[in-house]
## 1
Amino acid sequence: MDLIRITDVQKTYKTGTVALYDVDLTISKGDFVFVIGASGSGKSTLIKMLYREEKPDKGSIMIGGINVAKLKDRKVYILRRKLGVVFQDFKLLPRLTVYENVAFAMEVFNYDKKKIHHRVMEVLELVGLKNKVRMYPDQLSGGEQQRVVIARAIVNNPKLLICDEPTGNLDPDTSMGIMKVLDDINKMGTTIIMSTHNRDIVNAMKKRVVVLHEGKIVQDYERGKYYEVV
Amino acid sequence: MKLFRSIGRYFRDAGKSVFRNFSLSLASISCITITLIVVALSIILSYNVEKMTEHVSSNTSIVVFLAEEVTDTQIDQVKNNIVKLDNIAEVTFKSRDEWAKETKDKDKTISIVIDSWPEGENHLLDSYEVKVKDINLIDDTASKIEKITNVAYINYGKEYISSVITIFDVIEKVCIGGVVALVLVTAFLIANTIKLAIFSRKTEIEIMRLVGASNMAIKIPFIIEGSFIGFFGSIIPIVLTSYGYNALYKFLDGRLFSSSLGELVKPYPFILYTSGLLLVIGLLVGMFGSYNAVRKYLKI
């Protein structure tokens, strides 16, 4: 069953740069998809469109029954409650502890304290940070900070996890650790779409690979390897 | 239940944010404090000046002396003609006998002079005391009364009144002009300080949006936080107004000049109203400042 259906999507920025052109893509529930391509190929624009940070000029993007392209600004939160987002630059709140950063995402839903505590501890255990709940982001390593971000992204049980170059700032060993966490999450049923430049990760994971070049999807491999496609 | 929980959370988060972002909160609070002190001074000054103007208005009257040989009918006619004019608030008759009694009571020498007049003789004049509605038009009204038949002459301390009115008018205008300018400058300063405070929390707003908080759910804690800042910002001005005005009133013994003209507004309930007004202004400035600043970051 399709979770994401992108049809005939086009995006041109005000500067005249064509970011995406005639993009068609379908992603099924439970898939793990890498989006790769050189800088300026349009992968960041595509990822941003999935969580409605950018709007397409043309075409439709259906995610779990919501037409993202037609979603009004004030209704964006409806989409975002169905997905989690992980960034290269973490975007953690420095004045909040690990626990508070993760709980922050649940408090938006007005869950009671008990439920929040139970679920936050559960996801922090999943990402291996149960013993660092009281620490602040600047007391953690890059890999640990990214684990907090992943915990925050999955704490509300999203159907879709969008990762925008999550290992971009991490060393190879830490990156593989993060991929292991993401793989575990995927195995639990969450669909993951991840943009990356990291050749080793793509080759090691042997997942579906979508290649973007100058705003178009040029290749789509079921169990792709980096060297085959770039 | 969920609604109460969210309202509780909004207040708790807003309170926490004020202390977490203490330096920027303090900057916003200071701005509001300065503005409200200026506002408080302007309220105190303008209210007192207004009271003095009112005092001059209500206590100034034109004394209309009638011709020496007037009949009772003519006295009534003069009254009718005065009442017909615009700007007349009250007309009171004072007979020459009342004048004689009043003057005798006030001055011993004059009392001796009056007593020396033969029995039944009174060289004083009958009069009307005329109070006007608008003190600024007193000259015009006085000149119209002067032209009425059987009016001998009038007396109303023309120069004194016009100079007092001019002074009060200038004070009020300078006060309002200065305050408007100061309030505008500080309001601009507040708006920017709050904007700066919220700019530093761009990431927080971005994350709130990313995790699925609705625009309303993002705005409300910031608006509540703004009201907290407004509340804290109004404490010092309220304390200064309450204690300061009371102390000033006691120190000056309730009056600015020796005459009753300079009587100050009584501290109660004046300071209660002023404090309430300062609190409301503080809350509104804080809330609108925050609302405006956060709105900018909610546009996609």
## 2
Amino acid sequence: MSWLTSFLGWLGEFFGDPANWSGPGGIPARLTEHLEFSALALALAVLVAVPVGLAIGHTGRGQLVVVVAANLARALPTLGVLVLFVLLLGTSSIWPVIIPLVLLAVPPILVNTYEGIRGVEPELRDAAYGMGLRGGQVLGQVLVPVALPLILLGLRLSAIQVVATTTVAAYTGLGGLGRYVIDGFATKDYSSVVGGSVLIVAFALVVQAAFTLVQRVTVSPGVSRRLKVRQPPARKENSR
Amino acid sequence: MITFDEVTKRYPDGTVAVDRLSLEAPTGEITVLVGPSGCGKTTSLRMINRMIDASEGRILLDGVPVEGIDPPTLRRGIGYVIQQAGLFPHRKIVDNVATVPYLLGWDRRKARDRAMELLERVGLDPSLAGRYPFQLSGGQQQRVGVARALAADPPVLLMDEPFSAVDPIVRTSLQDELLRLQAELNKTIVFVTHDIDEAIKLGDRVAVLRVGGTLAQLADPKTLLSRPADDFVREFLGHDRGIRRLQFVPTSGLELRTDLAVAPGASGPDGEPWHLALTPEGRPAGWVPRDEPERLERYGTFVLGRDSLRSALDAALLSPSGCAVAVDGDGKVVGVATRDALDRALAEAADG
Amino acid sequence: MGSGPPTLWEWIARNWDTGRADSIRNLLLDHLVMSLTPVLFSLLAALPLGLACARWRRLYQPTSGLMNVIYALPSLPVFMLLISVTGLSQTTVIIPLTFYGMAVLIPAVVDGLASVPDHVRQAAVAMGFTPARRLLTVELPIAVPVVLSGLRVVAVSSISLVSVGALIGQGGLGGLFTRAYQNPFTPPVIVGIVLVVALALVADGVLVLAQRLLTPWVRARRPA
């Protein structure tokens, strides 16, 4: 069990070092950066993917976009895309890194929003129109609430993905918790590697838990107990 | 009144779903569209509230062409009930029923009060109001669907095979409930079904459509059964339409014998193989054979004047004596229809 | 083309097979091994576990909860934490990828078995199939399409995820990305991305083909 002792030793060293708790390289600062980059990328992805997914799901037009996005997102290597953008656009700002983060965060939201809206039982749509709801009301008052579990699943998968990709992006110079891992690995500072890794894992689990909570609160009990949505096989995207 | 004036629905691929359909659904009556699949009955129904738009011809609602009315506005004034109820799973029952009142901008309190009133009206326990649709049985969901369609008190109700997804016992009770409601509300109802028995039971007028969307016959159920327009209608009505026609022949003209019903303790008339023993309250107790005065045999009853000749015949077939017991609304015996009396009534029905 | 930086094609030709460990050809082979081993292992693990969860439904809730947690773990820190146990080896990449694969495949197996219509199961029971025989000859074949579509997700994800391993020196084609970043030079990135995506497409195509061969009735039912 020698690895466990050294593991605990590294952890103690990392979290016990007062230098790691202050300044621009301190844990609070890195954590804030990680949160900011992830939130920024996720917010931009939501702004793009949710309206497009709703529109495609509601009108049934442009479904090819969804299919291509879903397959490409899984197949594209995140590290390669990050390096390509940085090589092409330079490192003068954070955008060469944020853009690929957003691009990789869009597909899970897009695909699940689309699937959610598309999967609402046709008779429900029919009844909604038959009651005299207008197109926008059908979408907002019926389709979205019923598709909400899948839309939120897409958001959660995307959030997990963004947190993971933000970590990898430290390799191309982005701040955040990934710095501890990347820099520590380069300088063989294992306490930094192990401490940083534990922080990132904890961060990812908190994000996961937060989204699960949001789902509990926002999804109508009438929907979550027995879905009216025909649920497609769990669609999990490349989330790291 | 809903008027179809030479209405045709042709799809872009050339298929004709409805072909120059002309008919009227009179105010306050139930008009049933019935026919095999592919006869365009649902398409015709959905053209009334513009879920589908007609290709040619006009549909008039009390003389106003529906094509000139903004569809959502039109639909809010027409109740719509579909097969799977189509309740919104994320809303409680009371809010489902209040859907259209909310859309019309009613005060929330008033809309909910109205919804509660309707739940009771369609025979649902008000305690269900706070539940979600998945917590209700299929029959209950269908009742909620009817309540939802009635919420804003629309003069017209469109029902698209509303009872075909529930089991036969529930279906019968939903049909009875609809007739009871209609007796109170007098809505103009257009009802689509593929079940001819349902059509005959519910319809004031029945429109039989054939594949390709043409009208084969439009008539009241009795006429439909006695004088089908052609072989298609005859075949669609099925083999026992003669028997079923009897349900439109009243029993008020039946000749009854009162001497066969005998008070407790007394003995039957001479020369008769059976007599009907009565309870002290004047209700039937059972048929007594002449040879074994201690025995009581099964009997069948019909309510005189209310039940049809079909029920009277059924009652006669159920008892070993071969006679049907006529009772009043309270179940007290009015007389006995013998087989001879039934025979004469059947002969008259066959002539008429 | 002469002097100056090599073009894309020149760079490929020069680096395809240098005989060194970091030639494109060797990286490709490494990539294949590191991505396909987890696919195989996760399938082998998910089948019995999925069957157990389908058989004893009470196991499913905690198992799927655990798999959701595992799926949420970012790969890089997990690789880093494993280094202290398994060192800078391919195993360090293969183990987490196997678990990610299981997180997708166990639900797929359970859903697949749940997709067997009840009347089919009842008919098999009524015809006298023993439980084991029913599982092998009736239920598993019907579950195949759902399991295979899960396997497609796992294969494609694994292939693209392996490249993150480059950050600990074990990334197959991902090595091209780190090499490109260190000597700022784009051809390796492009070659790397194209090869990874191509591998993913080939793997996906093979699995689609496998599904057609294994379950001809699915194709017959809905002509596409």
## 3
Amino acid sequence: MRFLRQTLTIAAKDLRSEIRTKESLNAAISFAIVILVLFSFAVDPSSEQIKEMSGGLLWLVFAFAGALILNRSFARELSNDCLDALVSSPIPGSALFLGKAVANFVLLMVVEFVSMPIFGILYNMDWMRQPLWLAAVLVMATWGITVIGTMFSALTVNLRMRELMLPTLIYPMMIPALMAAMRLTTLLINGEGIPADDWIWVRLIVGFDIIFTSLAVTLVEVVLVG
Amino acid sequence: MREKILYGVGLIAGLYLVRNLYQILLVLPDEVDQGAIYRILLFHVPAWITCFTAYFLAGAASVMYLIKKNLNYDTFCVAAVEVGLAFTLIGLATGSIWARIIWGIWWTWDARLTWALITCIIYSGYLMLRHAVDDPTARAKNSAVLCIFSYASVIITYKSIDWWRTQHPGAVLSIRTGGGRMDPAMESILFQNAVALLMLAAVMVAVRMRQEETQREVESLRRYAHAAA
């Protein structure tokens, strides 16, 4: 119970400071819209082809915009040595990590909920045909991405070239979740259910979430404290 | 003494490889379906066995580092990953050549191939991370954590032929299929090649560890000199 309260305190702190400054959220949302627009030059937006690519396009947008949010997650604590204060505060590293992960998750979900309708309008897609399943896939894959991203944000916070290292490390690591999310999102946006053959992707995301959340929670103390 | 043993093992591995090469090129007959090109698989599979072994040991060394905080584990880990990466590239290259002959294409985005490439990228990221951290203890700690995460990609690469329908051939070795998928004489040479490559990899890891130890010593002397000045 205490652990949960500590986690939520950290998450609330991050979200509150984000709501007040809006520094990563504004950047991430505008970046997402810019990429959505840019993609219309790469493929013919009115063609049938876009239906086949919709999941891939959306998740690339989320992954790129997400990196902006994740980059700031621990880096924002560097000024005034806030990170040291957080680490020495009487909460376990895992609660600190989960709190930050929850905050990043909420922010990335906001980016996704803003991007989806814009995507629907720009590319003439009716994306609400399977709303429940789509929401489930978004939640599961976004959690996977945030767990990896938050962990690596902690890992790279003190590095030279942090802004370069984080995307280089996280994108290959996120691939299982991204791959599954892209495939499932394409199916769901096109109004199909999930055929028996594609259940492997749902299992992949669930497995990814469980494995990497437990790994990160176990190892984050080492990364933060040493 | 240590060097003599190392070079001795290296020499034995080299001779063993030459002997295997003689067997592969001059003794073994062509395969019924694939013709002469199947011979490259007798290096392709051993290269992957070697790199998976290297990555496994690197992962184990990372866990040991986090428990014991002994920098020697970190030294072993970086050596194993570098050697593993070299064998990953050999595995990708030999596989690609085989695919060009059998499938007519160098590359296909099939689950096994894609994951092998991802593994390669992830472990390159590990080496990049090491270059970005100056402090040896912080470097060892961060890279140990990354190495443990990276091992997931090795497991997925290994299991991808079971989880997805792939263009890459399924399991053929008798330890996975119970036999019958590969001629025993060919399989025996494949394992002998694996032993030779593993010995070679062990020598390379030992040499690389030596370099890493020397580098760490130079770094600490440099810090000492700066402190004294």
